[in-house]
Amino acid sequence: MSDLHTIRLHVNGQPHSCAIPPRLHLIDLLRDELGLKGSHLGCEHGVCGACTVEVDGRIVRGCLTLAVQADGAQVRTVEGLSDLPDARVLQQAFVKHNALQCGFCTPGMLMAARELVQHKPDATREEVREWMSGNYCRCTGYHAIVDAVCDVLAQRHQEAAA
Ligand code: FES
Ligand code: FES
Q1: Which pLDDT does position 83 carry in this prediction?
Q2: Residue 133 contacts residue 116 (beta carbons within 8 Å)
Q3: CA-to-CA distance for 102 and 152, rounded, in angstroms?
């Protein structure tokens, strides 16, 4: 059909070629076309962060990003975090601090937290709160999530000092 655009992208290291409507959002491509349901869809207008995924190394809102914008990109979803040592440390910290209950927000939280750990390793607790404030959680009250991220930052400082 003439109104479909073919894009090529890598998702969690796997190559894909997809013929898609130009208005399809990245989160819908990932969930509905590629079957990667780990990233969630909440508000659908850029507020809650449930749809957070990584495109070429930086996090984006999957509900605000058109899939065609990811043509040629390296995309990572929460499914692609499981083999990464730094993501595993974050997952363990979330478990240790009870930083998830229903888990709906957790994929987006982990994506946001990983970017913070990578790009702001010296973040203060206040800066962690500010950074993570773009992701909503209805269950935990946020303190446990901030505790988990701060724990990982502290671990990294200890490792660097050893
Ligand atoms: Fe994308 Fe809420 S579903 S920010
Ligand atoms: Fe339920 Fe965050 S754990 S929304």
Answers
A1: 84
A2: no
A3: 22
The CATH class of the 84-161 domain is mainly alpha
Q: Please tell me the distance between residue 100's alpha carbon and the centre of ligand 2 in angstroms.
A: 6
**Residue ranges of domains in the chain:** 5-80, 84-161
| pLDDT, tens digit, 9 for 90 and up, residues 65-97 | 999 999 999 999 999 998 899 999 999 999 999
pLDDT surpassing 70 at residue 2 = no
Ligand 1 nearest-atom number relative to CA 43: 2
Distance CA 48, CA 72 (A): 27
How far, in Å, is the centroid of ligand 2 from the Cα of 74?
27
CA of 39 to the centre of ligand 2 (A): 13
Beta partners for 74?
Answer: 10
Q: What is the pLDDT confidence band of residue 162, given thresholds at 50, 70 and 90?
A: confident
**Ligand whose nearest atom lies closest to the CA of 63:** 1
pLDDT for res 82: 86
pTM of the predicted protein model: 0.95
Q: Which CATH architecture has domain 5-80?
A: Roll (3.10)
- Rounded Cα distance between 7 and 25, Å, is 13
